[in-house]
Amino acid sequence: MKLYPSLLLFFVTYISWSQVLHSKDAIMDKQAKNAIRKAEKYIDSLQAKQDIPGISICIGNRERILWAQGFGYADLENVIGVTTKSRFRIGSVSKALTSLAMAKLFQQGKLDLDVSIQRYTTVFPEKKYPVTARQLATHTAGIRHYRATDPINCPKRYEKVTDGLVIFKDDSLLFKPGTGYSYSSYGYNLLSVVIEGASKTDFITYMMQEVFTPLGLKSTMADYSDSIVANRVRFYEHSDKKLINAPMVDNSYKWAGGGFLSTPSDLVTMATKVLNGQFLDKKTVDMVFTSQKLLDGKDTQYGMGWRMGTDSKGRHVIHHGGVVEGGRTFVLLYPDQGIYLAITANMSGVSINLKEGEAIASYFLE
């Protein structure tokens, strides 16, 4: 068989390039395995130090999930281990999901973020100053947060998101909207009512149909206390240095602000698709992830459902944590490096914050 010089050059080039690709893949696989081993040791140590029943973690980049794994127990009594499909309470990370619903309606021209919310709902009484959806999403509306006397630590079901407003709707604003920053889960509860008014769909249905399903979040849903939910973990806390079951709660009063179940894999998938522009256009994504300023120009270090900041090495990070009865969740995004992390635990009082998230992410950033 006679090979022409140009054809011969093609085969030689192809074979050489293939070897380079395979060599590069092998190096990347080795680096990934090394990072995973380090991360596993760190999580084992974290779990043992804090006596956490179960932890689940996921790390991804711009293209795919790099690693997802469960540690410990989803259910201690029945000796059921945590898997990547185990559903955890994500607490205030629910705000990040709710902000995407708001952003989608804004992008579609169905929600004006800068008009009084009374355009979209009449069930919340007018205050001294008008309140906008943008202010609710950025915690600058002056809506209060929890009080010790709030009727929330009991298994009471609020059938509609509007019903939950009774807890705080008659209270005065903390300040003139736009002049201060005060973190408020109730502000997000009110935002869910605005989303209902703008979409003309009940909040949970809208989240399922227009946010979770399009993003491919198969394990994310409302934490219904009266329903059988596959793969939902049991929830724990410590008392006198012993693990006990966390108190029974019904999170229907705060679906938008802290009432969803999810998995780290779903949360990383969400972050990847949003930052890749697969859910919202670039302009809207930038709006969600831009730190807001008060009327006096002060930076709040909070966008829409996400905190903005830097890690110990000065790298730009986007993050949010969730604290809830029987659960802790932390999501950490490195948008410039394209590394995204989510970690969940099924115990109250767990310390997993930016420090711990950065430590785990650093193995993959290397």
From TrEMBL:
The keyword Ligase does not apply. It comes from the Bacteria. Keywords: Hydrolase. Transmembrane segments: none annotated. Residues 40-348 form the Beta-lactamase-related domain. Gene3D superfamilies: DD-peptidase/beta-lactamase superfamily. GO terms for molecular function: hydrolase activity. Its EC number is 3.1.1.103. This is Serine hydrolase domain-containing protein.
